[in-house]
Amino acid sequence: MPKDFATMEDSNRSANPDIHSVSDPARRILLRGGLSGAIASLFAPLLGGCASSPAAAAGGPQLGFKSVPVGTADAVVVPEGYVATPAFAWGEPVGLPGHMPAFRPDGSNSAAEQAAQIGMHHDGMHYFPLDGSRRGLLVINHEYTDDGLLHPDGMKTWNAEKVRKSMAAHGVSVLEIAQDAQGQWSVVRPSRYARRITAATPMQISGPAAGHPLMCTAADPGGTRVLGTLNNCAHGHTPWGTYLTCEENWAFYFNGPEQPDAHQKRWGLRKGGRGYRWHEHEERFDLTRHPNEANRFGWVVEIDPMDPTSTPVKRTALGRAAHEGAWTAQTRDGRVVVYMGEDAQFEYIYKFVSRDPVRPGGFAANRELLDHGTLYVARFNADGSGEWIELSAGRNGLTAERGFATQGDVVIKTRQASDLVGATKMDRPEWVAIDPRSGEVYCTLTNNTRRGADKQPAVDAANPRANNSMGHIIRWKEDGDFDATRFRWNHLVLAGDPANSRPEARGNIRGDAFGSPDGLWFDDRGTLWIQTDAHATNMYKGEYAGLGSNMMLACDVKTGEVRRFLVGPPNCEITGVVCTPDMRTMFVNIQHPGESPTDRSDPDQPDRYSRWPGMQPGNRPRSATVIIRKRDGGLIGT
Ligand code: FEO
Ligand code: CA
Ligand code: CA
Predict the structure, then answer these.
(1) N- or C-end of the chain: fewer Cβ atoms within 10 A?
(2) Is the peptide bond before 613 cis (omega within 30 degrees of 0)?
(3) Measured from the CA of 143, which atom of ligand 1 is nearest?
(4) Closest ligand, as measured to the CA of 589
């Protein structure tokens, strides 16, 4: 999601006492031997004991496509030999039986119609096979709304119906999609699986925060039921077949008091929020009247995509955060491990380890698996080691005197707990991806231009660049199994443009230049896909002048080579990527094409920056998925 950090609440200003050194083991090695030298010398010992997959045995992934140049065309550009087809755009009916309202391109669909249509601003997604690679459920997050495009006159007028429509355009879409004999994908309409989950859908609250006094409101005195999920950024999926959707910048939606208290301040809550104006017609978003409502957001939400009547569950044991996503691994004895980044400047990387192993039998057999376990936060040491610090009430200084009498206190105030235990403040942790061959865990740190600025945390080993405008990708290998409390880490790459005038913004990419890495995904062959989200405010000028529009690249992590695979339309971000199991179809989300760099879009000039995907003059640009196939029907990326 784009953020104007010049106006962000400065909620985590103080430096933690653990890392102040600028020494960076990975960088030192990079200077000596280049990137592949770094991988060989630092990771060879780490890779030593790892299981080998068929892809690794075959020599690992090869980037078999011709690089796409940087560009600014109002199009999605993919390599020669590939076709990218827009589909599943905002406003198309999801296929609810008996309720399939057609999209109206002037934004005049009602709130009730929007609740039966694909939401706005697609983000993380996953494909759940129903019939292998021919038919499945595509589950898509809708991160936020541009209300300048959502309503015919944008926000020039404001009323309860507009608030309802904005809430209905948030959340998650469950689409049944199928491929015909020619390889063309379409939405199955009607479908018994079709579903919209919105900011008004009833949900259950489970885990240690359920029933906590800070979770209770006038509408829910028991603190166990809540309406809706919002700002659903990235995602995850579980070994038992459920989808995880993550609430990122939920603080933007609340009207805070003139003088926020310390807890509200730490979470960036402030008067007016970020201009969504929901509280004017939906009073639970007004914290001056319902101060606890905000505590009911900031969670990872579990959804069973196979049962459209199921109630989504907010899993509070995983901690509260501006959650980017939640990516799972499994220990050898079958417990699930969830890695999570909190995308905000100077926030943290988390891991949850379940108490119990996954049981066969799908969601029915694992309904409470994410309610019991241990939450940790990461500390990256300057010597290349790292540790997971347990966030449990009564441990590591998390005492009743300091406000952590119960685990409910810890998870509702996860940021404050992490501050107290001395975790490492990171440069906006976005997506996590786990290498299927080596078990190494990778995380994008998208950027942080305030790193090292006056009164801000200094550079440290894990976040080594002041004014980190370009971002980097860190990776670690657990000491043993995924539940280990220690790890070793280095950087895959520091992003940048070698042509930059500022040496710190040049990076050390071996291959095609990029900045602001965000989406990150390993396909089954072991290719790492990197998606970028440079904000429209920064794109096309200054340090980003040479990088064009946001893009997706492929990386062979064995050699470190990075190659550009896709360039999106102007002012979009590229986010969300998954392939069918046969690797012959790739789905990629194009979010907010043509977004205004300064504010919400102007409804009188909606196509000022982009018309994609419609391309007619005056067209309102729409977030959509692109379906990528190889012309010869081959494997994507080869
Ligand atoms: Fe919604 Fe952190 O990107
Ligand atoms: Ca982002
Ligand atoms: Ca993101």
Answers:
(1) C
(2) yes
(3) 1
(4) 3
Residue 360 CA to ligand 1 centre (angstroms): 33
What single string gives the DSSP state of each residue in 100-118?
-PPP-TTS---HHHHTTB-
State in Å: Cα 471 to ligand 1 middle: 14
Question: Once rounded to an integer, what is the mean pLDDT over residues 378-400?
Answer: 98
- With the C-alpha atoms ordered 188, 240, 227, 307, is the resulting torsion angle positive or negative? positive
Closest residue to atom 2 of ligand 1, CA basis: 343
Residue ranges with strand state E in 479-595: 486-494, 510-511, 517-522, 528-532, 551-556, 561-567, 573-579, 585-591
Q: What is the pTM of this model?
A: 0.93
Q: Which residues of 503-517 are buried (b: 16+ CB within 10 A; e: fewer)?
A: ebbbbbbbbbbbbbb
Instruction: Give yes or no for residue 1 CB within 6 A of ligand 1.
Output: yes
Please give the Cα distance from 61 to 565 (Å, whole number). 15
CA of 581 to the centre of ligand 1 (A): 26
Task: Round to whole Å and give the CA distance between 237 and 234.
Answer: 11
- For 489-499, b where at least 16 C-beta lie within 10 A, e where not — what string? bbbbbbbbbee
Q: What is the spatial distance between Cα 17 and Cα 414, in angstroms, rounded to a whole number?
A: 18
β 82-87/373-380 pair status = unpaired
* Of the candidates 532, 554, 548, the residue with the CA atom closest to the CA atom of residue 636: 554
Please state the rounded mean pLDDT for residues 584-601: 97
Cα of 606 vs centre of ligand 1, distance in Å, is 23
* Closest ligand, as measured to the CA of 575: 3
Residue 472: strand pairing partners: 445, 494
Length of the chain as a residue count = 638
Closest atom of ligand 1 to CA, residue 1 = 1
- Is the C-beta atom of 411 inside 6 A of ligand 1? no
- Give the per-residue pLDDT at 615: 87
Ligand 1, atom 3, lies closest to the CA of 1
- Ligand 1 atom having least distance to the Cα of 343: 2
Sequence-distant (6+) residues with CB within 8 A of 296 are 205, 215, 217, 220, 226, 314
Nearest ligand (C-alpha, residue 341) = 1
Token readout for 569 is 């339309």
What counts of helices (H) and strands (E) characterise the chain?
Answer: 9, 31
The model's pLDDT over 151-208, given as tens digits with 9 standing for 90+, comes to 999 999 999 999 999 999 999 999 999 999 999 999 999 999 999 999 999 999 999 9
Q: Which helix (H) or strand (E) holds 445?
A: strand 441-445
Atom index in ligand 1 nearest the CA of residue 234 equals 1
Report the distance separating Cα 245 and Cα 313, nearest Å. Answer: 10
Q: What is the arrangement of strands in the sheet containing 472-478, beginning at the earlier edge strand?
A: 327-330, 335-341, 349-357, 373-380, 385-390, 486-494, 472-478, 441-445, 429-434
> Ligand 1 centroid to 340 CA: how many Å?
12
Residue 59's pLDDT is 52
Q: What percent of the chain has pLDDT over 90?
A: 90
